[in-house]
Amino acid sequence: MIRGVFIAGNESPVLNAIEAEAAKRAETYVIAPISNRFSGAEPPPAADSAARILLDWNPGSPISARALVLGAENRLERIGEAILVCSPPQIRKDAVNFSFADVEMLVNDHIKGWFFLVKELAAVFKARGEGTLSLVYPDVNEAVGENETPDILGHSALAVFRSLTRSLLAAAFNEPFLTLGFTASETGDDASFAAYIFKQLEEKNRRGNGKLHKYGKLGFFK
Fold this sequence. Notes:
alpha/beta, Rossmann fold, 7-stranded parallel beta sheet, 5 helices, 17% strand, globular
C-alpha cells in the first residue's frame, strides 16, 4: 500500500483514473479537484471510496494553497506522493469575446494555482528531505477545422504547465525529493496510464528522477 497520497487537478477522465488507482493502492488519499467554472455545470458526483478525503481550495490564492497542503498533511499524517494533474477543459471562444471574469478564471484556476501549490509542496518535501512530486499532463495535438474556433483555455494552461514541469525536472537533481513527469500522447487509455504512474511511484527508482515518462502508441512506455 502507498501512504500519503495527495492528488490535485482538473476534473477530467485522467484525474478520475488516477483517483481510481489511488483508491486501490492507498488506505487513504486526499483529492483536491479544480472545477470547470466555464461550463456552469454541476461537478461530477464524488467517487464512492472509503479511502477518499475531499478538500476544497481556491487555486488562485497562495493562502488557499498553503491551507490545502497543511490540511492534507494533517489528514494523511504526511504527504509522501503528490500528484498534480493538468488536464484543462477546452474553451472554443474568440479571444476578443472573453470577458474580464473569463480571463481571471483562466489565470487563477488553471495557471497560478500550479505555481502556488508546487511552492508549498516543495517546501514540505525539502523540510522533510523526502517525497515525490509527480506532474501529469496530456500531450495531444488538436486538429482544428477551417471554420472552427481553436481552443484557447486548454492550450494556454497546458503550455504553462508543460514549461513548469520541464523547469522542475531540470532542477530535480538539486533537490532532496524526487520529481517525475508523466505525459500521454493518446486519449482513451487513462486507466493504463494511471496504473503506470503508480507503478513508478511504488518502485521508487531514483534513476527516474528528473525524467519525463511518455506513454505512447500501442501501450509502449518510454
